[in-house]
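Handout, section B. The chain below has 745 residues.
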Amino acid sequence: MLVTEQSTAVASPMAGKHAASRALRPGRVIVSRVDETTLLIIGLGRVPAGNVAVMIDDDQADTRSAFVSEWRLVAPPPRVKHGFAALLPTGATDRGITTIRFGEDETGAHFIFAPRLASAEEAAALVLESAGTQSAAVIDGLVDILMAGNLSRRRLLTITALLQATHPSDGFVELIGESHDGVTFLQGWNRGMTPGPCRICAVGSATPVVAECGIAVFPRPDAPDGASGFVGLLDANQAARALDIEGLVFRGRAGWRHIAVHPKKRIAGPLETPEHIRSILLRTHGAPDVLLSLRAAANSFEGKETISSLPYPVRMGIDNIFAADGGNLLVSGWLYDPDGHVATVRLRRYNAAARLDECWRRFDRPDVTDSFNEQQPFAPSLRGEQHTHGFIAQAQLPSEESGAPLYFELTLRDSRRAFLPVKPTRVSARLAALRQIGSIDPANCALPAIVDTQIVPFLRRSGRSAPVIDTVLDTGLFDEESSPPIVIGTGESEEDIAPLMALLALDPETRRAPIVIAMPAERFRRQATRLGERARFYRLSVRLVSAKGAADFYDLLEAGTQALTCETVVSLSASLIPHGKGWYGKLVATAATLKGSVISPVLAYEDHSIRWAGSWIDDDNGDQPVVGRYAGYPLKAVTDMKLTRIAAASLECCIMPRDALTCAGGFSGGYLGAQEKGLDLGLRLNRSGIDSYLLPSVQMWGCDDARDGNRPAIAALVEEIDRKIFKSQWSPVLAVEKRLEKRSA
């Protein structure tokens, strides 16, 4: 019961759990905190309704605007006939407010704050007792303002408390269904729900958002008088997880109301929800757009392939679908649709979708046409010699969530949908691209367009997968602080490293140097013991490193440096051999005079022609912005050169700070081959403040990459793809730098 004072308090009996335990007095207001930014103020007195200027603590500088709702008192005390409720904007620091004046002049209504804050339930009970039958309109007006503002979870809980205290529950949500489209299906009964669009907000642990929800109703003989069943769809962008929904705040025919979720509610999973919608769809009535949305939801993905059941000559098959890091997908297959029944093709996961038919690349698949020639339902639909059934497409969807399936969605021109679930193969972006282009005939006329529109964008968007050290094994005493370690990246066969180990043992300088041999994990398991025996035979100080996820020498170099803590390292590809002794000492001595730099020797072929002697930026070459000026020249063309500053060093053999790779962000994962991959990092090292130099007095001998056993046509295509990726990434950067240099000059 409301505690009253005979002369000044509003006395009105009230039963139930929301009975007020505070008293309203003229000149004093009771305050309840709505959330961190709003106070609810309730008092007695004549205060103008609407947006009213208020003054806080008689401070002229602290004037704000409050929303006021007022009413005539049910049982007015002497001299007071009106009550009011106001929403006052405030901040978390406004803890010591003592007075408030409604109105800017001295004649405004002045009130003192009660010393203790009231709960939302107490505030609602005060409004209900003092306003009586007017309380519904008062609470509705307050909730209207609160729902239009910045809706926090605390504010929504306050709104829920106000509505529950003043409006009895007149229904329940009985079923909540999730779908692979991301929408949330609601079913229950209620008196206040009306067919059509409805403003609604889910109450629960999720961040509250007011959304438009399409409502349809249906007869419920088991519901109380005046109530009907309802179904609704919360939009995918605003939908909450079914388990997080504890109730709904919605705008019904009589204003804002709250409807609770039944304690024995049913949660339907994505595979069950479409069937629930279909079972009730024919009994519902509502706005046409709402019914269309319900029909579309009833035709949602249920985990089954449904394309083969279409009554049209439409069929689909997937050859490959690869998933790289970051939700990056590359897919190839065929779509047989000679009569053009398919309007859109999407790849979906949960509520995310990528439309493929707007960006895919089609190509001839006569084998698909031949496979349907003998099938009676399909043969009459064949049109001429059309064979462009094949497709390749790249797409990006959010990374795989807990159990969220991946599937194709075909929307036909009559608006029906059909589905094809797929299971992607998780591989690196590089391996996915190599497998994809390897499955296409190099003579296919569509191949250049496929590379430009699908493969290159797929690789450019792919994230970097850094190699992971699996095992580290030392043979002999390994002292990385005695001199800079030589980090060697090996290939798949032992012959790659055996001759080099012998040459290192014959050189007095490298025989004493610590050596790191980084190899793929598969090879480490097969040959680590044999390589360890060879190192002991040559009396070399060797650390064997097993790396997972290494695609080439550069990844192995990165893994080898991660297994060290020293300041400087010497990188060396196992495909290179030194041209004479003393090369190691010259690199170390030069690096001592150029601290923090990268220094590379000349790389030459066995016929004494230059393979690489520095990389320079070529301002006049748009197709190849970075060139090697001396490539193909006789070796004697550079033997008289001194230490030379260059744009990018060769990381196949160089001496550099150990942390240089980390500072530059590591090697890019967007290249298929090694040449542009190394050049890319060389340029980034230069731009991170690490200078690059060529030391012509040191030469290393070697040949070009073996191209991983690729066919010549595929190897040439790999080189072309890498050039396009490199050009697209670096040409704009180098062009900007060139313009800046001209301005400064």
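Note. The first helix runs from residue 120 to 131. Compare this with the example in section A.
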